[in-house]
Each structure stands twice: as structure tokens, then as C-alpha cells.
């Protein structure tokens, strides 16, 4: 049985950085979901190709689940709730579904920039680290 412990400053710093990271994910999803044809036309040709691809509904759903679960988990982390861990795991599973499509099934892989590839690799890594962090928070009694 764990008792409630006051988390260190590092807990709050990591939690806020995680919230900013996941907010960027939510904004990326919203940006993609509401992208207009005019906005696509203003992009470089390589990016236009990527955004004109019709993504499968299950990929879009996984994207939505990943970012909303991750964002919700960060809010719960700041509220010091154990449920954050379950949402981080949910987000990670959705990220893996996205990654499988991105790297193994998608026609965009060869069109991705180095930055896009780096982000696509870093997202599941950060998701795993947030699960580990929330597990530590539960074990230390920082999350109730």
C-alpha cells in the first residue's frame, strides 16, 4: 500500500512539459482534421502529396485516440490521479497502431522529411517514457 507523498519539483516540470508535448499533438490532429484545400495548395509539392492522401478511418481514429488520451492523461497527472497511467497506456497503444501504418503500410513513408521521420520515431518513445513516469508516480505515492 502506498501513501500519498508530495511530489518533487521535477514531477511538476516533467508533467508540464508532457502537457505541452501532448497539446502539440492535439493541435496537429486538429490542424490535419480541418486542413483546407487552400492551405494544402500553399504547401510545398512534397507536403501536398502527403496531405492529399486519403488516410484510412482507423488510422485517423487511432490518431484521435492517441492525442486525446495523452492530453487527458497529462491533465490527470497534474491532478495527481492514478487514472493517468491507464490513459497513457491507451495513448501508447493508439500510437503503435499509427506507427504501424506510417512505417509499414503508408504510401507517405518515402515522402517524409527527416523531421517527420524523427517525430514519428520519437512519439512512441515519449509515450513509453510517460507510462514509466506515471508508474513511478504511483509507486512513490505521488498519484492517488
TrEMBL record:
| Parts of the chain that traverse the membrane | 12-35, 55-79, 86-105, 117-134
The record's keywords, sorted A to Z, are:
Membrane, Transmembrane, Transmembrane helix
**What is the name of this protein?**
Sugar transporter
